[in-house]
Amino acid sequence: MPARGSARRTPAGDPFAVSEGAAGLVLRLERDGVPWCWALPEGPPTGRGPALAAVPTTDGTVPGVRPWDSGRCAVEEWREDRVVVALAGRRLRGRHVLFRERDGGWWVRALDAPVEGAPLVPMLATAGELPPPGQDDAWGYEFKWDGVRAISVVEAGTLALWARSGTDITDRYPELERLPEVLSGHDAIVDGEVVALDARGRPDFGALQGRMHRTGPEVRRMAAAAPVTYLVFDLLEWDGESLLGLPYAQRRDRLETLGLAGGRWVPTPWFRGGGAAVLAASRDNGLEGIVAKRLDAPYRPGLRGPDWRKVKNVRTQAVVVGGWRPGRGRRAGGVGSLLVGVHDDAGRLVYAGHVGTGFTAAALEELEPLFTPADAPPFADALPREVTRDAHWVAPELVGEVAFAAWTADGRMRHPSWRGLRDDLLPEDVVEEW
């Protein structure tokens, strides 16, 4: 199986294939021209499902089998006992992990496979550092916006907005229905971020909280009082022509040529080279960071590969709420802190720490009615006594976001601070980001 120490990343776009025969499906990856194959006796993993058996086997391109799927993949990690790949095929798409347990058995699990109904799943960025100075000219840079990622589909003058989770969020942001004039008579698919801007024009994730979960008659009143903005940073399709295969630089040039602005739609700035200066500008303006994108990179839906890098000024992490502890003083009788977790490679929810700061009174009032009480902790690992003695357990249904200083050696977040709930991620999609 994968050789010890072979952690070097394969360039994005290597081929993969899945064949089907009498014994079932066989997944075939390539590493430096060498095939690595796993039989999938229980079939391929489905989005947010459990880990399934993956049996190491011989080359899957033998006679007597027929093609089941094929496409390109980006290798995120390749170790002796763990392989993480992002697949872009006709059937298999999104990030998948193959991992070996202590008993020697291999398993496969989908980490963020796409949801049925959405037109496509956004391309994602890996956390990392700025490209080295000698490679700076090969990259473009954008500011990282603190909002909700959304794919926008315009057909016959009608807008549909899709969150990264595959949820249709069109009705939550009616102020975006007024399309830019340039879209009149045209169909398009664009990628962008829904944000709430403060008085200085900076994204305010807290202000967006009041809108993210609203679907009732109050939505249009809220939209009129404090409208959101849709920041557009990629053009994926125009009048039926797919632009996914074009290099990033060409897609951005097409977007700028359109002049896609109007209503609450605003194209975002981008910069060829000069990554260090763009990152410094993001810090000076209180932004979350930047995203570096290779100028020659195509758009690979659902893939989290090395062609896009997010460079953050502040560490943030999506978390699943699994319980809470009572407050003291002014919080007596209510929620004092949240017990949160992330999913490991096997799909188990593991404890990541407790969050007791960053809450507003309104946030605490919003949270408690959303809890579904549970009889036992949802975390797979053993928790310390000081956590469990007064804990109230809840079903792991709510996803939030925290800012934190660092990960500790035992997998806990140091100094986490609550930023708010988010509904653009499903609980099963929440994994450690850094």
TrEMBL record:
CDD domains: Adenylation_DNA_ligase_LigD_LigC, OBF_DNA_ligase_LigD. The keyword Ligase applies. GO terms for molecular function: ATP binding; DNA ligase (ATP) activity. Residues 226-344 form the ATP-dependent DNA ligase family profile domain. Pfam families: DNA_ligase_A_C (PF04679), DNA_ligase_A_M (PF01068). The keyword Ligase applies. Keywords: Ligase. Its EC number is 6.5.1.1. It catalyses: ATP + (deoxyribonucleotide)n-3'-hydroxyl + 5'-phospho-(deoxyribonucleotide)m = (deoxyribonucleotide)n+m + AMP + diphosphate. One of its GO terms (biological process) is DNA recombination. Belongs to the ATP-dependent DNA ligase family. This is DNA ligase (ATP). The lineage of its organism: Bacteria, Bacillati, Actinomycetota, Actinomycetes, Geodermatophilales.
